[in-house]
Specification:
Elements (H helix, E strand, L loop, with lengths): L19 E3 L13 H11 L1 E7 L5 H11 L3 E5 L11 H14 L3 E6 L9 H17 L4 E4 L4 H10 L5 E4 L5 H9 L2 E5 L9 H9 L5 E3 L21 H12 L3 H16 L3
Parallel strand pairs: 1-2, 2-3, 3-4, 4-5, 5-6, 6-7, 7-8
Helix pairs in contact: 7-8, 8-9
């Protein structure tokens, strides 16, 4: 991996292994507090080349920034997660704007909508989502989108406020919804969920969507793959997730990784 904003480091893996990019990993999470160095070392050993680390609150941005300075090859995204808007206010949006202007993270995220919880304040979520889309548009940054049980509402927001690309993280919608994200210039993130035999819709989408629309992610420590069901997920698991996706698509692992790296560079630039 290499530091954010710098050239390749001596640690950077060469060949196919170095092509692995985790586009969504909460490496700053408390679940990694006791062994974060070992988790990062295992990711290197598994062949990860880059890790995108999204924030969930404005206060959390500093922790994400510190993680990305500490671990070469990690890149920050700054944003307010929909499940944390209850503790946010408009001053946080002003602070976020300041961070985007002065620090230029890789993306605005994790932002979006989450209607899974019945008591969620949808109106408040939508306000913060739309305001952060405006910031992404203003600073010409891609977005990392949380879309749980809210795909159509997220798409509505994207039609209203166009941004220059992004990722529908942990996508679990229909083919029609996937096609609409693609039409709007978004990529779709696939991770541990595709490794479960019962995840038929996700596996079908991962196997048949245009390869140019797909990126890989772990969402670690969440969404563990089948072989770690009920346990903590980690970025090192992306290597086996990629192998399973390649098998689903009937292509070589190298072909998959080259295509996904191209997709990430289209989205994020030369990271």
């Amino acid at each position: 991996m290499s530091p954010s904003g710098s050239g390749d480091s001596e640690q950077a893996p060469c060949g196919p292994a170095g092509l692995l990019i985790d586009t969504h990993c909460h490496l700053d999470a408390a679940e990694f507090a006791s062994d974060r160095d070992a988790v990062y070392a295992a990711a290197l050993a598994a062949g990860l080349g880059r890790i995108v680390v999204p924030a969930v609150t404005v206060d959390n941005c500093q922790a994400v920034k510190s993680i990305c300075h500490r671990y070469p090859g990690c890149f920050p995204a700054y944003g307010i997660h929909p499940l944390y808007v209850g503790q946010a206010d408009e001053a946080d949006l002003a602070h976020l704007r300041h961070l985007l202007h002065h620090e230029r993270p890789l993306a605005v995220g994790e932002i979006g909508l989450d209607f899974h919880i019945p008591e969620a304040d949808r109106q408040r979520q939508e306000f913060f989502f739309l305001e952060q889309l405006k910031l992404a548009r203003e600073f010409d940054l891609p977005v990392l989108l949380h879309v749980r049980r809210a795909v159509d509402a997220v798409l509505k927001g994207l039609r209203r406020i166009r941004v220059g690309g992004g990722i529908a993280h942990a996508f679990n919608g229909s083919r029609q919804q996937a096609d609409e994200f693609i039409r709007l210039g978004l990529h779709l993130g696939f991770g541990g969920s595709l490794t479960y035999d019962g995840s038929r819709r996700i596996r079908q989408l991962a196997a048949t969507l245009p390869l140019a629309s797909i990126v890989l992610e772990t969402d670690a420590p969440g969404i563990p793959p089948a072989w770690r069901a009920g346990q903590r997920n980690a970025p090192a698991e992306l290597a086996q997730i990629a192998r399973e996706l390649a098998q689903l698509r009937g292509i070589s692992e190298r072909e998959l990784l080259l295509a996904v790296r191209k997709n990430c560079r289209q989205l994020f630039g030369d990271i």
